[in-house]
Specification:
By secondary structure, this protein is α+β, with helices and mostly antiparallel strands. It contains 17 helices and twelve strands. The longest helix has 46 residues, at 222-267.
Length: 596
Amino acid sequence: MVQFRKYPFLILLLIYLGIQVESDASDHSYSEGDTVPFYANIIGPFHNSRETYAYYELPFCSQDVVKEKKLNLGEMLNGDRLVSTPYKLEFLVDKDLEVLCNKTLSKTDVSKFKRAIEKDYYMQLYYDDLPMWAFIGMLRNEENFSGRIKTEYSIYRHFDFQVFYNKDHVIEVNLRMPRDSFTDITEDKEVDVGFTYSVQWKMTQQSFDRRMEKYIGSSILPHHMSIHHHSITYSSLILLILIISLLTFYLLVLRKDISKNLADVEEDILSYNNQEEIGWKNVHGDVFRFPQHKSLFAAALGAGSQLLIVIVAILALGLLGVFQPYMRGVLWKTLIIVYAVTSLVSGYTSLSFYCQLEGTNWMKNLILAGVLYFGPLFVTFTFLDIVATFYGSTTALPLRAIVMLSLLWIFIASPLLFLGGIIGKTRMSEFQAPCKTAKIPREVPKLHWFRGVLPQMALAGILPFSVIYIQLYYIFASVWGHRIYTLYSIVSIVFFLLLIMTALVSVALTYFQLAVEDHQWWWRSFLCGGSTGLYIYVYCIYYYFERSDMNGFMQISFFFGYMACVCFGIFLILGSVGFNASLLFVRYLYAAIKCD
């Protein structure tokens, strides 16, 4: 009966995936004179990547009937809104000064174009699914005879399209705006503009399968690759030094201490029981005492484990070449689906560990695991969607996308969360503790200020953050700018080094905490492991003010809102890694001294 109940969820998932597959009858093969799909996508300020608007928000030349391309969920999440245009670029048909339209711009139209030029508006076009970009116009500041600076506004009235082909395929398309083909719109008056375009076809030997390499090339320039290689070398060197330091400490101090304790046990068990214990051995009766707020703790582990699987899956798919440059919305669509499916992991991890901690209110724990990360993400998303709607931006989701996300959460994510919880509850094993827990909790001695939670978190995040510092710039420039990031192999190595560094730092700090007879290490190891997420958010502030030209309330809201969710997710991921590494270490440590 249980197996039967699983099938509806799987069937719904398959249906959902099938709906989201782009259905395009075109195989990108054309004959001479065939119409090649040409779409306009979005416009927006160049420095504000998330502040995008519909193409016809500006009074461009348009057809009598504008057709909108049906979008999938990923494209809608990305803010894409593809519409038809009057441009006609038939296959292998050259054109010279083809008239697009003759348009009289009213004063209102002129004001719209001037505001767009002031904010460095660009447009994005697609020809046979190949992207192009162009600025709306040009702004010049010229000094007149009286010494005053006069600002002149001009819009481009002519586009030159250069299209490369190989047999019956379009391989590459370039868009150029001649410097002498602009119309002055400085004065607030009606302006007559004749918009034209030219098309030139050229043959190339590059194959159709490799036509996206043009867009990948910017990510693998020799200078950039050298920086990435130095970054990995630097991170690996830090990790090697840390490993050597911990191994040296283990061989010279910890192993000797354990061996001495075992020798004492073999000589005289009574003598061992009566001797005065010091340091970490003195808290063996409290080290496995369950933490406070264990339902929240287990939920945090579940959410962190789920997000870890999500990142690993996305990196694996990236290494397999699933996320090609400018395959619109594929990354967002995959991310949403993987997150929904891995709810099974969150429910299983959270409830199984909660039951090991002798928790009784399992339903509360399961709900907490489901909303711990999704709740803040939902609140942030709702607020930002309201902001985008107020601005009239294309980043505001249409009703169809909201319905699709709601169905995905109701029929996929939530049932899988509860299914995972039920599996975890039924297959739960007892918590394996090598030492018995004392009935009366031992009082933690008074410690120096630098051994407090916040100083330890600040110390714990330094080394892991140094591993990813260089890569953060390139990732931010891709997500919040217009650069392309396709080096999934590099980011996978860096992420792997980050996990190892976090685990080792957490283990070291846990030992030093136990060495001063502070047995409350459960939450401490999680917080110290996740502290790198706080460092990344501090870097977000630095990046916004020092490394970017983003501005405006909408862009600020999107940047700091979504980065807060990302950093919170990283906090949960690395926190779960830090705790699990510390738990393995503590179990080994106290099992070695045979404290029972």
